[in-house]
Amino acid sequence: MDGRIFGLDIQLGFDVIFQAIAVFIMFGLLSYLLFEPVRKLLENRKNKIAGELDQAAADQKAAAKLKAEYEEKLKNIEKEADAILAASRKKALKRQEEIVADAKEEAARILANADHEIELQKAKVKDQMKQEIIQTAVMMAGKIISDKITAQEQNTLVDETLQEMGDKTWLQE
């Protein structure tokens, strides 16, 4: 050894150059065999992710469209529900008015029947009073006549009265 830490000789130079060429060849060969498939794999993955992002964006747009449609349908349903409630209220008010009108008609009919019944009762009471007045007058007249006239005169008076009345009754007004 000549005092150097490592010796640079021609053999070492050839070995280094040979090793460098081998490394570059190995790098080129591995690049062709490994880097190209990895690059294709990464490119495919990149394209797949881009496609999935595009699909996700399209799905999001479709979901937004569906959401808008459902919100519109919900508004329409709410409008229909309000319309149904309004129609029900209107129908209920109409029915209420019909019931009130029927009740008023029934009350008027009851009042008319009551007025008619009152008139009938008044007429009946008047007839009863006439009958009682007539009976009282007949009794009084009978008493007065029996005191003043004889049975012969009484029969003559009854016959004359019956002839004057003819077909009419003395109870008619």
TrEMBL record:
It is a single-pass membrane protein. The chain crosses the membrane at residues 16-35. Keywords: ATP synthesis, Cell membrane, CF(0), Coiled coil, Hydrogen ion transport, Ion transport, Membrane, Transmembrane, Transmembrane helix, Transport. One of its GO terms (cellular component) is proton-transporting ATP synthase complex. It comes from the Bacteria. GO terms for molecular function: proton-transporting ATP synthase activity, rotational mechanism; proton-transporting ATPase activity, rotational mechanism. Its main location: membrane. CDD domains: ATP-synt_Fo_b (cd06503). It is found in: Cell membrane; Endomembrane system. The keyword Secreted does not apply. Component of the F(0) channel, it forms part of the peripheral stalk, linking F(1) to F(0). F(1)F(0) ATP synthase produces ATP from ADP in the presence of a proton or sodium gradient. F-type ATPases consist of two structural domains, F(1) containing the extramembraneous catalytic core and F(0) containing the membrane proton channel, linked together by a central stalk and a peripheral stalk. During catalysis, ATP synthesis in the catalytic domain of F(1) is coupled via a rotary mechanism of the central stalk subunits to proton translocation. HAMAP family: ATP_synth_b_bprime. F-type ATPases have 2 components, F(1) - the catalytic core - and F(0) - the membrane proton channel. F(1) has five subunits: alpha(3), beta(3), gamma(1), delta(1), epsilon(1). F(0) has three main subunits: a(1), b(2) and c(10-14). The alpha and beta chains form an alternating ring which encloses part of the gamma chain. F(1) is attached to F(0) by a central stalk formed by the gamma and epsilon chains, while a peripheral stalk is formed by the delta and b chains. NCBIfam families: ATP_synt_b. Belongs to the ATPase B chain family. This is ATP synthase subunit b.
